[in-house]
């Protein structure tokens, strides 16, 4: 009668194996390890977690994070927004001043005749003083 599958998998994980490192020229044992599959899985998983943790820490706590596309600090985003508003304000001011200069230039060249102000009805200044 075959053994249940769970039992054989557990036995395979706990079976002991021997890893021997030998000198190729003399066939002397340099190092010998007694391992199980479970211990190998644990060591490899631990190394993986440590490497991922070190990589995340390296990116998070060094300027390398600035090379990630779309990543930026909230403080800098606010600064960019303020600078953009200032630049827009300066641009609008420049456009208005340029329009003013263009209009003055047109008047001085005689392209636009200024409106006749002699026809305006003004209050008599002498009457208002009384």
Give a concise summary.
This protein is mostly helical and 130 residues long. The protein has helices spanning 5-14, 37-60, 74-109, 125-129; strands at residues 16-22, 29-36.
Could you explain the architecture of this structure?
This protein is mostly helical. Helices cover 58% and strands 12% of the residues. It contains four helices and two strands. The longest helix has 36 residues. It is rod-shaped, with a radius of gyration of 43 Å.
Number of strands: 2
Number of domains: 2
From the alpha carbons, calculate the radius of gyration and give it in angstroms: 43 Å
* Large-scale geometry: rod-shaped
Estimated share of beta-strand residues: 5-15%
Number of helices: 4
How are the strands of the biggest sheet laid out side by side? 1-2
**How is the biggest beta sheet arranged?**
2 strands, antiparallel
String of helices and strands = HEEHHH
Distance between the termini: 129 Å
Structural class estimated from helices and strands: mainly alpha
Please estimate the helix content. Answer: 55-70%
Mean pLDDT: 84
Q: Which stretches are poorly predicted, pLDDT < 50 over at least 5 residues?
A: none
Transmembrane segments: 38-61
Keywords: Membrane, Transmembrane, Transmembrane helix
Protein name: Peptidase M23
């Amino acid at each position: 009668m075959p053994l249940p599958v769970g039992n054989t998998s557990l036995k395979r994980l706990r079976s002991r194996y021997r890893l021997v490192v030998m000198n190729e020229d003399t066939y002397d044992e340099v190092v010998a390890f007694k391992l199980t599959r479970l211990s190998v899985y644990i060591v490899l998983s631990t190394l993986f977690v440590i490497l991922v943790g070190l990589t995340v820490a390296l990116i998070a706590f060094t300027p390398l994070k600035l090379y990630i596309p779309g990543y930026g600090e909230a403080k800098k985003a606010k600064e960019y927004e303020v600078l953009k508003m200032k630049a827009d304000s300066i641009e609008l001011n420049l456009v208005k001043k340029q329009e003013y200069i263009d209009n003055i230039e047109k008047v001085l060249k005689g392209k636009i005749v200024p409106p006749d102000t002699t026809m305006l009805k003004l209050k008599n200044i002498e009457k208002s003083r009384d």
